[in-house]
Amino acid sequence: MIERRRSTLIVTLVLALLSRWPGVSAVQAAAQSEAPEPGVAEASAAEPADDEQAAEAAVAFAPDALITVHRITSTPRGKALRTYGRVIAHPAATFDVNAYLSGQIGEIFARTGDLVRAGDVVAALESPDFVLTQRSYLELLANEERLSILREEGRLPNYLKDARENLRWWGMSDQEITDLTDKKKVVHRLLVRSPQDGIVTDVLVQPGQVVNAGDKTMQNFVVLGKPVVRMVATGKPLQLEIYVPADALGGVRAGSTVVELTDGRGVPAVPVTDVLSELNKESGLARAVADLGAESHHFVLGEVVPVAVRQPAQNGIWVPRSAVLRQGPEPVVFVRSAPGEFRRRVLRVTNTADGWVAVGNVAVGEDVVTGGKMILEGAYRMRGGRSSSDHH
Q: Are the beta carbons of 336 and 69 closer than 8 angstroms?
């Protein structure tokens, strides 16, 4: 109420000043001459005005120099949902570093967030079975009778090759296998190494934990493996996981919805590639995913960023929100009907978007007032017009 009285006072003062300017006094005089006399206004307020009187009362006058307008076009507008997203790894970039031997974890050398190079040791594994397997391999090499039989059958090269390959599957390096063959040097701790460069995202075992990697006997080369750490390969594209309220999920579609970053770093918008409708039980939010692709270098894995999910543009007649005047429950605009003449119109709103309102009773090509609305509202009131809130 105080703000309304203050706005009315300001507009009244502006109109009073305008009446002293050349070219404005006639307009002001016309407005005053058409204003109802005291007593008459009270009587007429109790009676419904006819259409002609209502249309006349809906006109306000002001110099064009004090008014800013926007010309209505048929440009489609879209909504933008303000939310946030988290940078995640692309599924194709995620891999596990496995231990291919059952045993006990002796040490862990990697932590979450560590940058690991190909060949770096991430864990050490201890296993009596592995030691026994190496000694069985040495006994085979020392068994001339067995080697002679394999040689006569033509299977010796392939047998030895398979045995060495099996040791590689367990995680032994070529140098360790060579030392075992030439120097009879048995490895008591198997070092688990990363096969490629990457960033550790999860450590899946703890020191002292016993892991079962499957059967690793010399008679069975089936390798199952046990994940020790999970990593994301460096240099691979990242993804953005966007969190979407359940009631807004219907407007998010793969391929037609784009995501814009709103943190000012100037990264181009990226399209949504997948929509996951399952809601998070704690937050009640659904998720959408966008591939960052060539823009991945702007981001850090696990980073949380503000985003705007921009939905496809929709056709309609869109009026800028800056033109809408709220007077009571009804939104209104002033539409220029002639130079210095503006008609007050109650809007029929059909949709909304960022900074825009879709309406059904404004035409393409009309000029709606975006600056000077309160001046026109004051002039409208002085001519006897009332807002819907004045009826209560």
A: yes
